[in-house]
Amino acid sequence: MQLYDRLYASSFSHKISHPFVHIMFGTRQTGKSTLIRSIIPPESLVFDFSNPSQRLQFATNPGRFIDMYRALPSSESPRFIFLDEVQSVPELFDAVQFLYDEEKRSAPDERRTRFILCGSSARRLRRTGTNLLPGRSILHHLYPLTSIEYQPFIPAGFPVETLYGSRSLVPIFKDEPRLVSPFPKRTLEDRMIYGELPAMAIPYAERGTNADPRRELLRSYVAAYIEEELHRETQIREWGPFLRFLSLAAYESGGIMNFAGIAKESGLSAPTVKAHYQLLEDMFLGFMVPAFSGSSRKTALSTPRFFFIDLGLRNAAAGLSLTPDTLLANPGPLFEQWVGIELYKRLSYLGDSQLSYFRTAGGAEVDFIIEQSGILYPIEVKWTENPTTKDARHLESFLQDHRDRTSHGYIVCRAPYPLAVSNTVTAIPWWLL
Question: What is the value of pTM for the model shown?
């Protein structure tokens, strides 16, 4: 099967050249292990703790890892040791710290071991108070695919030099790299239905089948991972109400959080609902977008919005039919979620920007606001091919209220080309975000 490039690969390859402990988190099936294995040397030591036999060896005796390490022959070049699904054996964090500190005292930086730890859950680590090696570690996150990781979706007749001269019309994204071997391009509708996990982007021919297995893969993911692993990783006793919460949280994804409403429908208390949302974040299945805090309007809302990290997982967890009919029934909110998730992933990789939203009790709203170095980039999302000044009215109002921090707004939509909606608002095609 072809190995496709990932946006984070270059950054990760550079960072692991430094002699620290490297910890990569991300939900299952985002390609963490594949990325790490493609970058570390072939002779690296790899331990996969999803394998019960390996897990049992070290869970019952974590000191065995230290003994194994000390028996390794000396090396003039840095050794790479990869511990996959390490959250299953949290005691190994202490063993890695011991070895890291011991080697730091005795070996030069260019020869020190690069420990790479990978996990799909921070829940057990947080619950057991696991030492995440502060001052010794660099944290990494890998997300489902972003638009950068696909072949560019360029309509016929579009001036290609515009795309390659500036990757995005939103300034903070303009210098993102182009990849040598990106995933095959997909339509917006396909990505909104099936999401952005790498398995959803692999052509059928590479699977050796002409049939589309993605519906079954997503349903199996929800059943085998979201439900079973959540059950194993947690101490949830009321499993039926939790599954109702999971379905409701998925269905309400992208909306302003309503703890009381979901508690009532799921049969859980509001504090329990809050704890379950935290659980989804710990498992890297979702994230919060806070309300914009820089507004002087007293009617501005302050409750965050919650998003599933991937629309395919969200759709499957909500029990929706994974067909175009599901999308076309109400495409606007789903498109808004798609844009929000895309912004969150891209900004997380950049690492120096914040994402929020703005809404007032009176109905004024801006779907997303990016803040970078004190500058605001307000963004509206519209499921339209023909944006008008009417679509820009909330943006224009926000620009007026915050003219000391922003001068331009953007509408992400399905227009075939970029359009100047007004002197201060530009409409951007979804593929040119």
Answer: 0.92
